[in-house]
Specification:
Layout (H helix, E strand, L loop, with lengths): L3 H13 L3 H13 L4 H22 L4 H24 L6 E7 L7 H12 L2 E5 L6 H11 L3 E5 L8 H11 L7 E5 L5 H7 L3 E2 L3 H18 L3
Parallel strand pairs: 1-2, 1-3, 3-4, 4-5
């Protein structure tokens, strides 16, 4: 298969069903046929993952389907990432991400990371069970544009406020945009803890992150 349209359709379809070996194979075929890495990403991989998100919202897909599709895309992203960097695809911004202390859930976080990377963000993932002091140390080291706190359990959501307090105490609150998310999190809760942004799913997170960065940069005098 070397027809670009066939490769793009194959990439879309195989990502949708989470066929990781085939997705990687088609990525290689596309590159060998001289296709641009951006084309594979923006015309097949990201639209496919967005469709996965839409099916999840409709109740047609569940977490396992989202996870295997995300993993399939992650394999392709590993191959494309250095090529995208070489072609000078501009980094939208740096996003520091972690699941809060006491919480070991990372499926949603990992999907968000893949979507963010695909949209041009540099993602630094601190993993799960991330204590406030670890977030602070990473912010000081990497100086991200956005820090994301993820929580899957209602019992760990109060860690958002603990993290916000740690940011204030370290004098870093004004230096980063704070986004929160996770299954039980709502816009109201995000507002209550003083976060700058909230997103209900991975694709919404990418849009909101881009908007928040644009707003922040518009405020900063050149």
């Amino acid at each position: 298969m070397s027809d670009p349209n066939e490769i793009l359709k194959g990439l879309y379809d195989e990502t949708l069903v989470g066929n990781a070996p085939r997705v990687l194979e088609l990525t290689e075929e596309g590159l060998a046929a001289g296709m641009e890495p951006q084309s594979l990403l923006f015309e097949a991989l990201i639209p496919s993952l967005e469709e996965v998100g839409a099916r999840f919202e409709r109740g047609d897909f569940f977490v396992p389907e989202m996870l295997i599709a995300g993993r399939a895309m992650a394999g392709a992203m590993e191959r494309l990432r250095p090529l995208l960097a070489e072609t000078g695809v501009e980094t939208v911004g740096t996003f520091l991400m972690g699941t809060v202390k006491g919480d070991v859930h990372d499926i949603g976080k990992n999907l968000v990371n893949i979507m963010l990377e695909g949209a041009g963000f540099e993602v630094i993932d601190l993993g799960v069970q991330v204590a406030p002091e670890k977030f602070i140390a990473a912010i000081e080291e990497h100086k991200p544009d956005i820090v994301g706190f993820s929580a899957f359990l209602t019992t760990t959501m109060p860690m958002f406020k603990a993290n916000m307090n740690a940011l204030e105490k370290a004098g870093l609150r004004d230096q980063v945009i704070v986004m929160v998310g996770g299954a039980p999190v709502t816009q109201e809760y995000a507002d209550a803890v003083g976060a700058d942004g909230y997103a209900a799913d991975a694709s919404a997170c990418v849009k909101r992150a881009k908007d928040l960065i644009e707003q922040k940069r518009a405020k900063v005098p050149a």
